Structure formats: C-alpha cells, structure tokens
Amino acid sequence: MASDGKSVGKGVGTSVGDGRLGRLLVPAVPFLWLGALFLAPVAIVLKIALSDATIAQPPYLPVFDWSEGWTAILDALGALDIENFALLTEDPLYWRAALSSLRIAAISTVLLLLLGYPMAYAMAKAPEKLRPVLVMLVILPFWTSFLIRVYAWIGILKPEGLLSALLLHLGLIDEPLAIMNTETAVFVGIVYSYLPFMVLPLYATLEKLDATLLEAAEDLGCPPWKAFWRITVPLSLPGVAAGALLCFIPIVGEYVIPELLGGSDTLMLGKTLSDEFFKNRDWPLASAVAIVLLVIVVGPIMVYRDIETRRMERAR
Amino acid sequence: MTAAAEGRKRDTLAIGAVRRNFAPWADPAAVPLIRFEKVTKRFGEATAVEDLSLDIYEREFFCLLGPSGCGKTTLMRILAGFEEPTSGRVTLAGRDLIGVPPYRRPANMMFQSYALFPHMSVEKNIAFGLEQEKLPKGEIAARVAEMLRLVQLEPFARRRPDQLSGGQRQRVALARALAKRPKVLLLDEPLDALDKKLREETQFELMDLQVKLGMTFLVVTHDQEEAMTMADRIAVMDRGRIVQVATPGEIYEQPATRYVAEFIGDVNILEGRIGQGEGGRWHIAAPEAPRGLLVDGGGDGVAPGRQVAVALRPEKLRLLQDEPAPGTPNVLAGEVWDIGYLGDWTIYLVKLASGRTIRVSRANATRFVERPITWEDKVFVTFAPEAGVILTR
Ligand SMILES: Nc1ncnc2c1ncn2[C@@H]1O[C@H](COP(=O)(O)OP(=O)(O)OP(=O)(O)O)[C@@H](O)[C@H]1O
Ligand SMILES: [Mg+2]
C-alpha cells in the first residue's frame, strides 16, 4: 500500500516536472534571443560608457582581461565611473542635441500624422479590389535602398535640383530654392521615409472599422463630417498611437537623414553620437550618448506597450 | 397584487382597447404615414426590390416577412435613407424622401447587428442621438434616464457595450433608437440574437412599448411566428415583391397564393380541377380524394375547369378510424406514417395511396384516449368545406 502510494507520487512528480520543463522551454527561446541580441550588447555599451577614453586599441580603459584573473577584473570594475554622463549633463551641446532630436521627432510625427491619416482614410474607403494595390504602392519604396532614396532627395532639393527647376519654370519662385541643408530638408526626408510606418497601422485600424457604426450615427441625426470626429477618429486612436510611436521612436535616433539632408546647424543625437565615435574617437562618450538615447525612447515604448495591452484586453 | 403588477395589468388592458379597434387600412379616408410607390432598387444586374408599392399607417406595427435575400433589409434601408431607389417614390407624412440624407429623416433604425458605439458607455450611446438635436443637457439626462428605465438597464448605464450580454446590447440598441422619439422606428431582425424565451418576452415588450409610445414600427423578420405575434399587418415578400399584405389572421386563414400559404405555418396542398359550383362552394376533382372535394369560396379566377390548389391547415383536419358514411366528400384515406407528440399537440403524418403525406394536428384536450391512433393504423382524414382555401396562384 505504502509503496504503491510512493510510486504513484513519483509518477505524478515526474510528469509535472516534464510539463514544467516544456512550459519553461517555450518562453525561454525569446528570452535567450533578447538576452544575446539586446541585453548583452546594451551591457557592453554601458560598460564602455562608464570607461575612460584613451589612445589605444580599443580606444578605452579599462579593458577586461579575463586571463589576469578575478582581482584584475575587480580592479577594472572599480575603475568605471559615470564621468561621461556627468559631461553630457554639463556640456549644453548635448542637451541641445537631445532637445532638438525630440523636437524634430515630435514635429515630424505631427506632419506624418497630418499626411498619413488622410492617405490611410482614403485607402480604407477605396473600393475593396483596389486596396491591396494601394497597400503595395505604400510598401513599394522599401524595394529600393533607403540610402539611395535619401540621396535622390538631394537631387530634388538642391538649389539646381529638380524642384527648384520646376518651380522656376512655373514662375512660382524667382531664385533657386535654398532648402537643401536646412531643417526643412530634414523634415521632407523624414516624412517621406517614415510615411509607410504611419500609414500602414492607421490603414489597418481604419479598414477594420465597422461601416454600420457610421450609418448608425447618421441615422441618429449626425451628419457624416461630424460622425468622422465622433466615431472614426476615436475608434482609430489605437492606430494613431501605433503609427505615431512607430515613427517617433526611430526618428529620435535618426542619423542618415540629418547627415545627408541637414545642415551643420541641424542638431540631433544620432549625429552627435556618430561625431563622437568617428571624428573624436571618443567611444566612451559616444556610448554614453547611445545609452541616453535608449533611455529617452524607452518611455514612449512603454506607453505604446501599455496602449496595446489595454486594447487587447478591450478586444477580449 | 403588487403595485407594479397592477400597473402592468392596466397597461395590457389599454393595449387590448387600442389594438382591437385599430384598422386604418380598412378606412378609405385614412392617409398613410409611409408610402412606397412603385419602388425598384437594383444593385448592378441584381434586383433587390421590384416595382413595390406599400402603405403603412400611423401607429401601425408592421412586419416585413420573407425568406433570406428577398429584399427586406433593402426596403428598410431605402426608408432610412441608406439606399436611393433606382426608381419610384417614398414619402413619409406627405414629404418626399428622395434625396433627403439619413440624418434628416424622422425615422430611426435599430440595426441587425445593433451597431452600438464600442467606445461609448451605454448612457452615451443612448444620448448620442439627443446630442445631435442640441437639446439642453438636463433634458438629455432626463430622457436617457427614462430610456434606461424603460429597457431596465439602469444598473448598466456606465458599462461599455462589450461588457454586456447579447440581450442587454439589444436593449441598448432599442433604447438608442427610441430615445429620439422618431415618428417611425425601423427594426431589422431585432430579436435575432436572443434565445427563445427571452425572444418571446421581448416580443411582448416591444408590442407594449409601441402602443405606449404611440409610434409606428416597421419590423423585419424572417420568423413567421414572431411576425404573427407582434404585427397589426404583415407583408409577405418574395424576390423583391410583396405577395400579400394583411393581418396575421387573414394571412393565415386566407393566404393569397400558394407561396404565402406554404411560408406561413404548416399547410397541406392538394391539387385538383374545379367542377361545378354549389351555393358558394365548389366541387373539385382531386386524384388523391376519390370522393372529390367540396370547398368554400375562392377568389377571382375560380371557374369550372380551372386547375387549382387547395390549402388545408393541419389543425383543421380530423382523423377518423372508421370510414365516414358514403357520399360525404373531403375524405382522404391513408395510413399513419409517423406520430410526433408535442405535449399540447400531437402531429400525425398520414401517407396517402399516392405516396403524399398529409399533416394532421390534434390538440391533446384529454389525458387519456380510449382508442389511441398508432403507427400503421388505417385512418381517414376529413375536413369541413370551410376548412380549405382555393388557391389559383
Ligand atoms: N449593397 C449590395 N450590393 C449588391 N447586392 C445587394 C446589396 N445589398 C443587397 N443586395 C442583394 O439584394 C438582395 C436583397 O438583400 P436584402 O439584404 O435586402 O435581403 P434580406 O431580405 O434582408 O435578407 P436577410 O433575411 O438574409 O437579411 C439580395 O439578393 C442581396 O444579395
Ligand atoms: Mg436583412
């Protein structure tokens, strides 16, 4: 009897254990992925950010030398400090770059929304057969290199470029456009490059919107233009949030567009980072900038996640 | 008796009084509230509504009944303004509705899918239509409260639609459409999502409300029992056309065509040829009734020699175990093929020599029967001349 009970207990124990292992294994995969490809690099960057710059290979101190044993590692750890972060707060250049990045990202996001919403709305209202074609057209630019597309804008925006020529020809302007290497050019480049990221999530929510809701509103005495504000806009807010964050977050760290289209006075964190890294060879300071950038965008990402979970809960 | 129950009883009495004397369609001087005049609606090649004319009177509870795809929703959407007819005229209270947008029409619709605004609470949903009228805040609040009380949803005022059951949602949709006190309320299969019991309760609630609020209801349904229960008049539709408009009783007892007879309730159809007339009755030679049929009345087009159908309702047939006296007409001989015991009723399926089965229903008025009829018994189905309806179409 007793032995019976024991064997039964054992059997149950192993089967539970197996189940638990299986259940742990599945979520372990994304965690390993996250650990190897996100947390480890961030830890390395953070370590470099806490080091001091030097003229050597690699250009920072201390370097962990695993062959010297534990004491050496501990010494090296002791040599880390937050001097670089302190510098970032002291030098107004970095403050200005951070604020300017946020400002450019915010303005770009608003412009993207103003342009993207009508586009997505028109796509969602288009005849059903036409919609996949329109989605294809929005995605089409991705088939050519991002860099080439930004270069193409130089050809369009420069004073002797296509846009200038066209406007001069039409007699709308008297002298060549001077928007190349200004913030305006940066906005043009950003809005152009990020438009699909705004349009697609907006389109996804607008297309799913139940058309009978608008009929119901109209039936209750609400003219269509008012129904747009009372029904369509509120119900598409999750799409607005998704699109806005999907654009805002990468724009804050944008480097290529301000580098190619912006002027020397266009300050952005991505550009500052690259300058520190390549021009000044100050890896630790560049790393510190990278960490600050990360911290800045983590906020909006959390907000986005929060919106998404709440939306999922509501859908249930 | 509680005060509420007493109040309810008084209401019901009032409804009886209102409904008993209500028949504006029979009054040649009455002016209809809604008129469809030769309305046709085509979607590309397909015709959803064809050359349809229909009058609906004020305070009428009107049901559109028909199989799926016969154009019921389309007709309702034409009245609400979501579809423009391809040709024809629609007037409401004498006003031509063609070209008037939905938001300016004095009709409100309860949608087949309810179409509640998911981002608004129950309260806000109900208030939506009132806000469009720019009523003062206090009045809106009062009306919303009144509507919530009416549909018994006061405890759920702050909930969002996704936090309600199907039946509760249906009530919100009803309250939202009622809140504006429209001249006409359009209900597209309003009780489709409810289970049988709740459905029956709600049918009576709707009838109650309609009388209490003095509104005109146009209800779409494909459930004939529902239509029979609620409606003052029913329009039976078939492929975009109206086949018959009449009170539930007339539709059931005097169907205009074979289609109507078969669509509403159960019916047995016998085919035959009209013989000679006899005091408002016709002798009909039917192969399945060797003794011939003798049936009352019949409308236009009934003349000797004409091929007709005779519709017989199962509950108007009698089942005999002994052969009726020779010479009596209306006798069908057969064998009991199947019996369905429903508690209140028993359904007998009698197979004739021709192979056709006749459906006979019998009320179980007593608990015990001396000689119960069972499977494979030889039986005779008979009926009175006034039980049959002669149909020429
Ligand atoms: N927008 C439309 N485009 C094309 N055809 C349509 C459209 N709306 C309805 N129809 C067609 O018109 C006919 C009538 O449709 P309707 O929706 O009025 O039927 P219904 O009687 O309400 O049916 P159900 O009981 O299934 O709701 C159908 O054959 C349908 O396919
Ligand atoms: Mg329908």
TrEMBL record, chain A:
Its main location: membrane. It holds the Pfam family BPD_transp_1. The chain crosses the membrane at residues 31-50, 102-121, 133-154, 185-206, 227-252, 283-304. It is a multi-pass membrane protein. InterPro entries: MetI-like, MetI-like_sf. This is ABC transporter permease subunit. Belongs to the binding-protein-dependent transport system permease family. CysTW subfamily.
TrEMBL record, chain B:
SUPFAM superfamilies: MOP-like, P-loop containing nucleoside triphosphate hydrolases. GO terms for molecular function: ATP binding. The keyword Ligase does not apply. Residues 34-264 form the ABC transporter domain. The keyword Methyltransferase does not apply. It is an enzyme of class 7 (translocase). It catalyses: ATP + H2O + polyamine-[polyamine-binding protein]Side 1 = ADP + phosphate + polyamineSide 2 + [polyamine-binding protein]Side 1. Keywords: ATP-binding, Cell inner membrane, Cell membrane, Membrane, Nucleotide-binding, Translocase, Transport. Its EC number is 7.6.2.11. Belongs to the ABC transporter superfamily. Spermidine/putrescine importer (TC 3.A.1.11.1) family. The complex is composed of two ATP-binding proteins (PotA), two transmembrane proteins (PotB and PotC) and a solute-binding protein (PotD). This is Spermidine/putrescine import ATP-binding protein PotA. It comes from Chelatococcus albus. The gene is potA.
